[in-house]
Amino acid sequence: MRSGPGEAVFERDGQLLSARLAAIAERVPSGHVTADIGADHALLLIALAKQGRISKGIAGELNTGPFQNAWNRVKRSRVDHLVEVRQGDGLAVLSKGEAETVVIAGMGGSLIASILDKGESRLQGVKRLILQPNNSGDRVRTWLANRGWELTDETLVEEGGILYEVLTAEPGNGDAPYEGSPFSKDRMVQLGPLLCKSRHPLLIKKVEEEIESRKRVLEQLEAGRTAEAERRKQEMKKELREWEKVMTWLSEEPI
């Protein structure tokens, strides 16, 4: 049974996944050796294993507590013949060429980019990255574009009133998703080029949040009287105008 956006999602085997994790699971190719870096309780890999969707799962955790929790849950779920839990720092839990799909989810975009950068040599042979930053998605998109990973899919999921981005990338032309975009590449890195091209139904809410965030910063800057405060004020006003242009574009009927 599948629930509405933001609600819990029950898979066929009774394994409970959130809407966010379900969106990630849907993007894992069947039969792949799949690694989940920062797997928490390993719910994603357990669900995929029970559905027969993966040939092998590797759950990576840095700290002993989460590592033990993941191992215990995998054992209780009786999928330890398919899912291996390893303790280590980021992609260091993988051997080169071992995984076909790598998932890194539920952490800040800057940390995800750092994990990818630090463990880039372990991405040899990886066919798909599925990345879910809690914030700073622009950092992740920038890393992908600069390292020859092409965005093939972007979606937004609302859970508990919070919007989450789920980005899928495969080896290719990192600049391709930005070609023919209605705004600058810098803006599209923040907005999401494929979200924009598809006019994702939740994109307006994302843009509204960007606008409100800048309005709050501008209000705080209004009290400043220094040259630096004035510079920041003008900078923020320009940013606000640019995001309002995006909102106007999104509100128009596509031709």
Which key terms come to mind for this protein?
255 residues; alpha/beta; 23% strand; 7-stranded mixed beta sheet; Rossmann fold; 41% helix; two-stranded antiparallel sheet; SAM-dependent_MTases_sf; single chain
SSE topology sketch:
Blueprint: E1 8-10, E2 16-18, H1 19-26, E3 32-37, H2 43-50, E4 54-61, H3 64-76, E5 83-87, E6 101-107, H4 109-118, E7 128-133, H5 137-146, E8 149-159, E9 162-171, H6 185-191, H7 193-197, H8 203-221, H9 227-251
Parallel strand pairs: 3-4, 3-6, 4-5, 6-7
Antiparallel strand pairs: 1-2, 7-9, 8-9
The backbone outline, from C-alpha atoms, is elongated
Tally of strands: 9
Largest pleated sheet: 7 strands, mixed
CATH class call of the largest domain: Alpha Beta
The name of the CATH superfamily of the largest domain reads Vaccinia Virus protein VP39
- Strand order of the main beta sheet, please? 5-4-3-6-7-9-8
- Per DSSP, the total helix count is 9
Series of H and E elements: EEHEHEHEEHEHEEHHHH
CATH topology of the largest domain, anyone?
Rossmann fold
Helical/strand content category: alpha/beta
State the share of residues found in helices, binned by percent. Answer: 40-55%
| Percent strand | 15-25%
Mean of all residue-level pLDDT scores: 91
Any idea how many domains? 2
Rg, Cα atoms, Å? 20 Å
The end-to-end distance, rounded to whole angstroms, is: 37 Å
